[in-house]
Write a structure and sequence with these properties.
Blueprint: E1 13-25, H1 30-36, E2 42-54, E3 58-62, H2 69-76, E4 84-89, E5 92-93, H3 94-99, H4 101-104, E6 107-110, H5 124-134, H6 140-154, H7 171-183, E7 189-193, H8 201-218, E8 221-225, H9 229-235, E9 238-243, E10 246-252, H10 253-258, H11 263-270, H12 310-314, E11 320-322, E12 325-330, H13 333-336, H14 342-346
Parallel strand pairs: 3-8, 3-9, 6-7, 7-8
Antiparallel strand pairs: 1-2, 1-4, 4-5, 9-10, 10-12, 11-12
């Protein structure tokens, strides 16, 4: 759990997802579908996802590639409009919040690739200063230069770096520039879409330490998207596990890593090398992730789940508090029916 956030946990959420769904029409052109006598093909990238993020805390979303994490990130800042459900920012529907410049400046996004997210033709000072100009935060060029210099110092760079171009920096330095740009509008809520995945391991640690320091000093709230469980454990207060566009488990970060409940979450934890040689029991999970265009009926994980029964194959489980660990919400019939063996192990 990041330092300095404990006292803020439990306050009113700054962001809520209420039954959020996002579908994409990936059908072939109408004439081709008519000739082939096929219907539309709808990709269900995010399906009925609900969670909330209290102020000053970090909520992380994890899962395999293609599970809907990045789509959820774009829904959270309004880059995608939801097919169904609501995104609520500080008690206001996100569509209304995005229409207000005063509200829109309170949320920003840090993208995955620091090489692609910065304009190569602009100097760093212009890149960082653009949101300041767009939102009218400072008056005059002198105030703008001073603000850009402060932001560069805040992320560990020099004000003189503002006259250089992005290609003159390393990957870690470019991500620092991206963070400075995100902070330039004085936001309260940052959506971080795998911000360290394109960086070397040693540089990842530096960026994570910077982000946690900024959260502590500025009171920021993060929605953190990642597939790196070691990173997630370091930065998160709460973790949501996504599978095939759905949230299958939502729990405090340490609980996810010590007592995972959903079979899919347990499979993710089992993929972490057991360097301490604890001899913990591992549940093998075979098969492949089904297509989000034609997901299986019932629980989306049932074709790969070792605990699946007939109910799992026909009835979709709801995300509800888990037996034995009420702070954990899990969408699993086996957990609900105590077929996962957790209560017996706890006894």
């Amino acid at each position: 759990m990041p330092d300095g956030t404990v006292s803020r946990i439990g306050t009113a959420p700054i962001f809520e997802a209420r039954g959020l769904s996002r579908h994409f029409d990936v059908s072939r052109p109408a004439l081709q579908r008519l000739i082939a006598r096929e219907g539309k093909r709808i990709l269900r990238a995010v399906e009925d996802v609900s969670f909330s993020i209290p102020r000053g805390t970090t909520m992380s979303l994890v899962g395999e590639s293609g599970c809907g994490k990045s789509t959820m990130a774009r829904l959270a800042v309004g880059l995608y409009t939801p097919t169904a459900g609501q995104a609520i920012f500080d008690g206001q529907d996100l569509a209304q919040a995005r229409a207000s410049a005063a509200q829109r400046r309170r949320m920003q996004m840090i993208f995955q690739d620091p090489y692609a997210s910065l304009n190569p033709r602009w100097r760093v000072a212009d890149i960082i200063g653009e949101p300041i100009r767009a939102f009218g935060i400072s008056d005059g060029q002198a105030a703008l230069r001073e603000k850009v210099g402060e932001l560069l110092r805040l992320v560990g760079l020099s004000p003189a770096d503002g006259q250089r171009y992005p290609h003159e920096f390393s990957g870690g330095q470019r991500q620092r520039i991206s963070i400075a740009r995100a902070l330039s509008s004085n936001p309260e809520f940052l959506v971080c879409d795998e911000p360290t995945s394109a960086l070397d391991v040693s540089v990842q640690a530096q960026i994570l330490n910077l982000m946690m320091r900024l959260q502590r000093d500025l009171g920021l709230t993060y929605l953190f998207i990642s597939h790196n469980l070691a990173v997630v454990r370091q930065v998160s207060d709460r973790v949501g596990v996504m599978y095939l566009g759905r949230l299958v488990e939502d729990a405090p970060a340490e609980t996810i890593f010590t007592t995972p409940r959903h079979p899919y979450t347990r499979a993710l934890m089992d993929a972490i090398p057991d360097v301490e040689m604890t001899g913990r029991t591992r549940i093998p999970v075979g098969g492949e992730v089904p297509s989000p265009i034609s997901p299986p009926p019932g629980c989306p994980f049932n074709p790969r789940c070792p605990l699946a029964n007939d109910r799992c194959r026909t009835e979709r489980p709801a995300l509800i508090p888990a037996r034995g660990t009420p702070e954990t919400k899990v969408a699993c019939h086996a957990v609900e029916e105590a077929r996962d063996g957790f209560l017996a192990q706890a006894a």
